[in-house]
Prior knowledge:
The protein is α/β, with parallel strands linked by helices. It folds into two domains: 2-190, NAD(P)-binding Rossmann-like Domain (Rossmann fold, 3-Layer(aba) Sandwich), CATH 3.40.50.720; 210-425, NAD(P)-binding Rossmann-like Domain (Rossmann fold), CATH 3.40.50. The protein contains 16 helices and 14 strands. It has helices at 10-21, 33-40, 51-60, 70-76, 97-109, 126-137, 158-163, 178-185, 197-228, 232-240, 261-274, 280-304, 330-340, 353-356, 393-399, 414-419; strands at residues 2-6, 25-29, 64-67, 79-82, 114-118, 144-148, 168-172, 192-196, 311-315, 344-348, 364-365, 378-381, 404-407, 423-425. The strands form two sheets. An eight-stranded mixed sheet has the order 3-2-1-4-5-6-7-8, sandwiched between helices. A six-stranded parallel sheet has the order 11-10-9-12-13-14. Helix 5 (97-109) links the parallel strand 4 and strand 5 (114-118). Helix 4 packs across helix 5 (97-109). Bound molecules: uridine-5'-diphosphate-glucuronic acid. Uridine-5'-diphosphate-glucuronic acid (UGA) binds at residues 121, 151-155, 208, 211, 215, 249-251, 253, 256-258, 260-261, 319-320, 384.
Amino acid sequence: xxxxxxxxxxxxxxxxxxxxxxxxxxxxxxxxxxxxxxxxxxxxxxxxxxxxxxxxxxxxxxxxxxxxxxxxxxxxxxxxxxxxxxxxxxxxxxxxxxxxxxxxxxxxxxxxxxxxxxxxxxxxxxxxxxxxxxxxxxxxxxxxxxxxxxxxxxxxxxxxxxxxxxxxxxxxxxxxxxxxxxxxxxxxxxxxxxxxxxxxxxxxxxxxxxxxxxxxxxxxxxxxxxxxxxxxxxxxxxxxxxxxxxxxxxxxxxxxxxxxxxxxxxxxxxxxxxxxxxxxxxxxxxxxxxxxxxxxxxxxxxxxxxxxxxxxxxxxxxxxxxxxxxxxxxxxxxxxxxxxxxxxxxxxxxxxxxxxxxxxxxxxxxxxxxxxxxxxxxxxxxxxxxxxxxxxxxxxxxxxxxxxxxxxxxxxxxxxxxxxxxxxxxxxx
Length: 429
Ligand code: UGA
């Protein structure tokens, strides 16, 4: 099928590449001409495992192309996906100006029937607004349908999540676009749920908020574990073996971050408030999440006492493993909090250092993981990169002025670390 994706961020670019991979002809549109130029030249604006190869392969096969012209994108396809950012406003509500602008641009370029599909995460009832906008700005007065098709991919695992989705959700206002939407997803062999647009939009906010709730739940349990000498990983394993609960997203941490959970929680709370419901459960999820960072900083201060002038090595800057994304990264917040206390930082991340440089100043960026601890008073693990498990612990113990390691991601075994001579503080253990 001929498909257009507007927006080449983490969702749009991966979706475009995966649609092309299963045989569709895809045009990716981005208003940032420099980005389009970069993509055309084979460059990658983001790091996502497997993405570069996938883009290259499908561009060479003639199934994937890039343009800065929305009009070209609209002319070339019958189905247009919107995958532009929906960033948070200062009050927690969602900035829908990118969606509105793209809806207007699509409308003014339409000369025949199109299906306009929203893939960005949006508040419930946005589909209605998109439909109204298109109707208003469509010069040719042609027929169109609006659909909602929320995306559930995780950064760092995006290609795999998109190629093997648990389910595909399609929200529609009439039956007309259903078959085309199903045809797009048939090659992915996943269950397809067809529902109304409001439900589809809500599925996304409800799912993300529930996952965030799961993390806050285990983080709250980690507090009780620390107070009693229990081990949160053992508790999570025991809970997770119940199929009704499941083990995934039960890893205690210094809190969740990223461009989705914090934003979607605030948005869902706001939306509920506007509908007259105080979703206090979700406010508690946020409170617990903020508390994790506070408790972790407190642990560092309790151990090192005065941080002013102390050298601290930080492993991890991305908001999670396998990504270069530092938006709302707990690791960056941790660095800022340590700097506020006067600590001097040496930092390392396998992929996120370039992006971190824009938001984290006055630190030493170290090129190699094993060099970070050099001359530091303590080492902190802030991101769950699997390669941090291969840290040369013998060397770290020798080059640290004191063998102190704070692990915000529970990567090491407590007993083994103590046997190696570390003062080792982690989460809920
Ligand atoms: C999340 C959802 O998992 C995706 O399904 C969704 O499509 C996406 O948001 C989105 O709305 O676009 P993402 O933000 O990429 O994906 O990353 P996650 O893997 O969900 O991790 C989010 C945060 O939670 C990270 O900071 C991670 O370190 C933390 N986390 C995750 C924990 O602290 N503990 C866990 O057990 C799992």
